[in-house]
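User: Predict the full complex structure for these chains.
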Amino acid sequence: MGSGIGWVIPLENGADCDERYIGGKAAKLAQLAHAGYRVPNGFCVTTLAYERFLEVGNLANTIRIELGRKPLESMRWEEIWDAALRIRLAFLAVPIPLDVSQTIEAALEKLSRVRAWAVRSSAPGEDSANRSFAGLHESRVGVVGNEAVLDAIRVVWASLWSDAALLYRRELSLDPTRSRMAVVIQEMIDEQPSGVAFGRDPRGTQRNQVIVEAVPGLCGDLVDGMVDPDRWILERSSGEILEWRAGDRPNDQTRDPILEIDDLNTLLQTLRNVETLLGWPPDVEWTGRAERFTLLQARPITTVDQESGDTRSWYLSLRPGERRLSSLAEQVAQELIPQLEGEGERFAAEALDSYDDKGLAAAIEERYTAVQKWRQIYLDEFIPFAHGVRHLGIYYNDAVRPEDPYEFVGLLKGQRMVASQRNQALVTLAHQLREDDALKDTVRQAVHIGNSDPAKGWQEVRAKIRALPRGEEFLREFEDLLRGHMDVAYGSDRLADRPESILKTVLEMAQAANRARQRPLDGVPADTDAKALEQRLFDAVGEDRREEATDALTIGRLSWRLRDDDNVLIGRLESQVLRALDLGANRLRAAGRLHAGAKVGIAAGPAVAEALKDVRGGPVILPAELETKHPSLTITAGETPRQLIGQPAAPGLATGRVRSVRSTEDLGHFHAGEVLVCDAIQPTMTHLVPLASAIVERRGGMLIHGAIIARELGIPCVNGVPNAVDLLHDGELVTVDGHLGIVTVGPPEFDLEGVT
Amino acid sequence: MNPHDEPVLGSDFEFGLEEAARDLTLPERIRNLVQGERFAVLCTQGQRQPYGSVVAFALSRDLRAAAFATPMTTRKYRLLSECARVALVIDNRGKHPNDMMKVEAITATGRAGQLQPGPEFDHWAGLLMARHPYLKSFVRAPSTALFRIDIVRYLYVTRFQEVRQWVPESGG
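Assistant: Here is the predicted structure of the two-chain assembly.
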């Protein structure tokens, strides 16, 4: 430590210390303390301690491997979250070097009367006059005991590489070789009220205005958005109150302003003085009353700047806290999902054939609007609620410290989803075929005949099956399945419109059943069934936190189940738009106004409805369907992939022939034992998974449908393989290594010089 | 396509490290790598035993052939006379000692044949000496043999485990 800086620095000695060693937050607090403001007692764990921890634990390599797996810009947010989770667990698995931990413990002992600590991030360069990145790194409050403080320090260090920080890596200049993190450790102050105050209007419009927000309790409740604050707008020069708004707090009976004039005046004066001291209008967190204000933090104001196309703030909103998750759980499970289900059923029951063109146009518009509405709800409520699974993952990993960061996925097993009911119905039908050779043979012959007119072809298949002794019963159950479970959209098609394709899958399932698909989980220890994992979690948290753990479990499981269900249910709604659109498009075709081969997807809804209303209208031009854009692929002549890298999403090793599924048509061509290669396994197609020997997906993430179902069934899965569908060709032999996330293309043995 | 699938983050989110190579084609990446490295491990075989030696090498512009020189008294020379099938391993681990994810490596496989004095010999000797001027007398010594490897295939490895193949014959 040639700099003369140690592992820790008391805050009161930090005023002259280089920010590189103590980070932005600590540097500002030290300056405030030095200038005579009340700040909570404490000290800073320097960046040198972080460096030492990184070096001893060889963690720089872990970071590099996680971030180097593939170009970061081709990762989805979920994959970045996954990388951050692995880094976090690696940080938690390494003890703080003894020399560092002893120094920290000695610093804690010096302030022995402190009962609880706040452990906060203080990254160098995190806040400057030009920018401020609030909330990208973790902080822990109310930490009790030395051991817990040391734990919290590692969590804060790891948050230098949090998903949020990685999203802003360019602005933060995040670099595994250079980036460092200091940690501020301070006494918890439980004075009331608390709040934030901005030296200028953070919206950047009114320079002569100061904003003050206050809540009755802890500042964290305000910052986390859990409690609605009282809010004042003051004129900066005169201190005059321009506006006051009471916070909306249902359990708070008193409606008097939380702060008095004295408090507001002191805050205003503090803001002015802090601005003079630090050189920029600050955003301060404070607690206490006029005569005893304590400053918890000061940083430059982050101006709300909604850059066009910058979706990162949305990604950050996908990590709701525990309480927000609880309220989302209630809303999603009890209100939204039943509503969504009801709407789908109502649309499905409507007899559209009897409507005239205007009536049909209205039906299309109603369905189209409903789908748009639910897609928005999906973004605003369903996706954030999906974080419940991730929340459970972090909770489990923090408590249990397992070797495998995804061990917690075992806790999600056995959830009764809409899709599992469908899969069960398929299994039952497959069973009937297996028991009855005549039926099986007839079905096999029937589905392979093919017919240029699918509807007519299906009628012929039906007639043949019906003629068999147990055909009637089979057909009835099959058609129940079509109505009950397959009336969903897959792209611009309705699965229910493809009965032969689904029948082929049933046939494949019947044939594959002999191969005992329900094999034991490969690579996952036998004791990691849901009950055992649950016990492991309860043992780790102890009796005191059992209720909290139960909540995390309940929310995680509900979140996982509903995350699947909401997709299927929206698929049902989309199917109803397509049903109405099909009917409308056929009428337009019959009138010669729409090209016979025109593909009518959901985006065509408004155009088709308008055309139906306009009886004298001319030819109809449909908007192009939106395609998801993926990075383009540059392949030189003579180039072939040999090993593709992705996420090790479900453990296991399997070799098989590639079968790409890109369309509804392909679903029926999938044969048992093939390697399922697709853009993304959607809940509407998870019934193929048990047939596959392995799975390769373009869409990446350890917690996406394909990954979790594959893991549950013990099928190796590698996902996050860019351009998987373009790089792998049907019939090609591949080996999927779900332990390492590698797809090897070509036979295991090959003659290197065979090409000459 | 799943309308609910959020897209990847896109090029605005690039990491800001050395990623200049990202848009290059595979042959361009291979060319960049071999231009930056002057030595390779030559892998030979004989008597059912693999054998490795570090050699100074030069490569043709079209990446279809490489050359190296060896004293005729060496084990590798003897092995080459037994079996012409060889591999050349070239990597830049020296540039990234602390970051294996950035290390690039190629294994080039092909057949090695000794060049006899003549225009072909002069051409390759010239290429090798231009790259390694200090080897002039070594290359010209009567007891030194000059070999040309006709490269059949490249296996290019990056990010620790991502492997792509390129067969120059079938491409430009």
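Chain B has one domain: 25-170.
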